[in-house]
Amino acid sequence: MAISSGWPIQPSAPSGAATIGQPVLSIENLSVHIGPARILQEVTLQVPRAGTLGIVGESGCGKSTLLRAVLGILPGGATVPKGAILFDGEDILTDCAATVRGRIGYVPQDPYLSLNPVFRAGDQIFEVMRRHAKGSRADHKAKLIELLRAVQLPDPEAALRKYPHQFSGGQRQRLLIAAALACDPALVVADEPTTALDVTTQREILGLLRQLTVERGLSLLFVTHDFGVLAAVCDRVAVLYAGQVVEHGPTRAVLDDPQHPYARMLLACHPDRATDLGGIPGTVPAATAQPPGCRFHPRCPLARAACAEAPPPMLPLGAGRSVACPFHAEAFARA
Amino acid sequence: MARYILRRVLLALPALFGLILLTFVLTRVIPGDPAATLAGDAATPAQLAEIRARYGLDRPILEQAFVHVRQVLTGDLGSSIFSGRPVMEEIVFRLPATLELTFAAMLLSIGLGIPLGLLAALNHNGPVDHLIRIVSVGGLAVASFWLAIMFQLLFAMEWDVLPLRGRSDLAYGAPPFHTGFYLIDSLIAGQGALFLDSLWHLILPAVTLCLPGLASIARFTRSGVLEALQKDYVLYARAAGYGRFHLAAIYVLRNAITVTVTQIGLLFGALISGAVAVEAIFDWPGLGTYAVQAILSADYKALLAVTLVVGVVYAVINVLVDVLQALIDPRVAEDIR
């Protein structure tokens, strides 16, 4: 294993059951434009029921936009010229997205900025439960206190009455995990939930997230740019480059033996396994100036004329893997 | 919280002491010799000297200042050098009149300004936003004395739907004095007709006076809401499934009005100064008309008392605003420690 995750909790082995049946979330040929910027191009992904999918990519690759599309909070001016997002078989892009709120839990990136400073933490979560969870206020309170115990927040009763600034960052993220689970979701969406925290807290939070989703049989869509985090949390991974999915497969297999030239070069940049720290020549294209065809071709050592003509299709490789490059088997000729 | 309030009150005290000294200095730099005014044109130097001695104007300036501070602190604002009556007597009747007017205008400013600002922000750059902006810029730009006269011409003279001047009809007179607020005193006395009549009289001056404040409150609320809408916690709340109305009218507004609330303190100052013109036009027997008379007659004692009273009220309002702010945003009280 080239990349050691270093995390205490290893992902569960992909079980046969998880892939059988309808995926809980199915993103089909999704394109998202924001003004002139073509952020996502024909992204197709599935989150298996009770499984975890990681989305990995550099800043600006469209991770956040993908996540916001799933959460129904695309920025103003965003258009979806193509594609669908099916949650439990329901198209949540066209249908009233509000009906699924509560069934998709959300753990945001920055626990410091994601709670409103002028309301009590408990009240902010109760407001969501009031709208999306069954039962009375007393039921909600009992449920939330139980969840706060599950996320190991000390003194849950008192915590409900505190304001956000009275918690540490790790405590706030625990609160937000509890909030994400408060309405019994089928899917939890997490947006780099540990980047704002220090390393020791990161481990605890990731372990907790992993443990709670496994215990409760939840599906997890996890966005990150950190391979170590990815290896610790996700069964499957999709590598995103400039709004296109370039590789998709079981996390271990993709990390150990990446196929797409971008994934190969990106993983070669990882300090743990770097043979040379040369990086990838060129820069990520601006979203308003995406190259035609395969968006990676201007930086790709394997590129040829055909690459600029049409986006390459996803080629199945067997064992649940696929790659968007017909030339993936070729070796690099590197200077 | 109690600690925070105590601290705000203690911080207001030196400001008030400074105000007492400042008012004294101001009365000495305004043009016009009060002794000469009192004595009249035909006064002899001996009469002038006698008047100066009677009012302590011949003493060293520091001694006068000391006496002034001591008198003010014991609640003695002196007597009008014009009428000879204690200034406090006049103030007790006139301050409630002004407060009734300014509070009414303030309620209108806040009660209309905050919803308008919210509405404008939620329709950011839409037609409603533009309309509200035009109206609020207009509200700031139009001189209140001009507007007051237009209102009088239209509502009182042309259409005859609202009274032209005063606090109540002569037929009713004033209610028995308890608080000095006609709206309250008439209710205490059980005079329903007088209550309605006072309310009727309050409409035009209060509407005139409230417009600049309404405009600035609406603008501050609008920018506060727009700023808050950009915050991560709004995105999070939307993703978590907050309702649209709850998000805008409760969740975001509470953040936004922390800025608006600081404006309310400043607004009160603007209302008091605005009241001078509005009271004069509507013949409202408040501090504003009193101050105008005092200036015209170089009655420095009266002027000094008006300035002091307004200063004290202003300080009290601002302490209340600070407390209100701490109630809205719990971090405010804790940062002070």
TrEMBL record, chain A:
Topological relation to the membrane, as annotated: Peripheral membrane protein
Name the UniProt record assigns to this protein: ABC transporter ATP-binding protein
Species in which this protein is naturally found: Paeniroseomonas aquatica
Keyword check for Translocase: yes
Keywords of the record: ATP-binding, Cell inner membrane, Cell membrane, Membrane, Nucleotide-binding, Translocase, Transport
PROSITE patterns on file: ABC_TRANSPORTER_1, ABC_TRANSPORTER_2
Sample GO molecular function, one term: ATP binding
Annotated compartments: Cell inner membrane
Major subcellular location class: membrane
CDD domains found in the cross-reference section: ABC_NikE_OppD_transporters (cd03257)
Residue ranges of domain ABC transporter in the record: 25-267
InterPro entries, alphabetized: AAA+_ATPase, ABC_Ni/Peptide_Import, ABC_transporter-like_ATP-bd, ABC_transporter-like_CS, Oligopep_ABC_C, P-loop_NTPase
SUPFAM superfamilies per record: P-loop containing nucleoside triphosphate hydrolases
The family this protein is said to belong to: Belongs to the ABC transporter superfamily.
Pfam families named in the record: ABC_tran, oligo_HPY
Matches recorded under SMART domains: AAA
From TrEMBL, chain B:
Tagged with keyword Nucleus: no
Keyword Transferase attached: no
UniProt keyword list: Cell membrane, Membrane, Transmembrane, Transmembrane helix, Transport
Membrane topology: Multi-pass membrane protein
Places the protein is found: Cell membrane
Main location: membrane
Domain ABC transmembrane type-1, first and last residues per copy: 95-321
Gene3D superfamilies the record matches: MetI-like
Membrane-crossing segments per the record: 101-122, 134-157, 203-221, 264-282, 302-321
Pfam families in alphabetical order: BPD_transp_1, BPD_transp_1_N
Entry similarity comment: Belongs to the binding-protein-dependent transport system permease family.
Protein name: ABC transporter permease
